[in-house]
Amino acid sequence: MSKHLKRLASPRTWIIPRKEDKWVVRASPGPHPIDRSLPLSLVVRDFLKIANINAEARRIIGNGEILVDGRVVRSYKYPVGLMDVISIPNLNLQYRVLLNRRGKLEFVKISKEEAKYKLARIENKTTVTKGTTQLNLHDGRNILLKKNKYNTGDVLKLSIPDQKIQTCYPFEAGNISMLIGGHHVGELATIARYEKIKNPKPNIVYFDGFSTIKDYVFLIGHEKPEITMPDISVIEESTKSTTEDKTKNKSENKTEKKTEDQSVEGKAK
């Protein structure tokens, strides 16, 4: 595996300029795949804007000032992915990683209370020594249980960093979900029904007006979302402010030009 990554070849889920520089930090192997995660130094510098250069970001991370899921992370290449909680105690800031409507990774501001838990989907489960059930979660965690009472596709609400199960959102009709793939990525929808396919093809989940495969469905609550889903993300806020500045500058330029034209006409008369 290559240790380098060109910006042009970076995953489509990354919101970064691709032609300003040649290289970008490559996330190290970890709990999330590269197309669903971002290296921590890139998050600190380009997304959260608390560092101007990569050296500053690496120093901040190395000093233990960044927490991921309640634990100090000192590796600047650590992959931060879907549903991870980033905390910066010195600035009293907390963020959750989500997917926006375009399928891009974004960072949503959350409260201090909400930063105490995260949602994790059960990808697989196995039986290990002495009949103990091991749950394999989407973020690389493994949880051992004495009783086999959860199914794949269910989502667990975990307290962080102690990883205790607070509640479970079963994969069934009536629960609300966030779509993490397909044409409706980033949308919220309530499950209407679930169809199991008895062949190698993926199972189908039906919503009001459309359907998708089970892998694209991530439950986030019973009747309402258990996580903050704001209309404007960190990236969209910065983009909006930039657009507003450009519009303001254009209007000022037009006003100045109009004043100059009027003065020229007055002199001509």
Report on the architecture of this protein:
This protein has helices at about 40-45, 55-60, 235-269, and strands at about 35-40, 65-70, 70, 80, 85-90, 95-100, 105-110, 115-125, 135, 140-145, 155-160, 165-170, 175-180, 190, 195, 205, 210-215, 215-220. With about 270 residues, the chain is an alpha+beta fold. The chain has three domains: about 5-110, RNA-binding S4 domain (Structural Genomics Hypothetical 15.5 Kd Protein In mrcA-pckA Intergenic Region, Chain A, Roll); about 115-170, Beta Barrel (OB fold (Dihydrolipoamide Acetyltransferase, E2P)), CATH 2.40.50.740; about 170-225, SH3 type barrels (Roll), CATH 2.30.30.30. A five-stranded antiparallel β-sheet has the order 3-2-5-6-7, with no helix packed on it. It has a five-stranded antiparallel β-sheet with strand order 10-9-8-11-12, with no helix packed on it. Helix 1 (about 40-45) packs across helix 2 (about 55-60). The longest helix has about 35 residues, at about 235-269. Mean pLDDT is about 85; it is low at about 230-240.
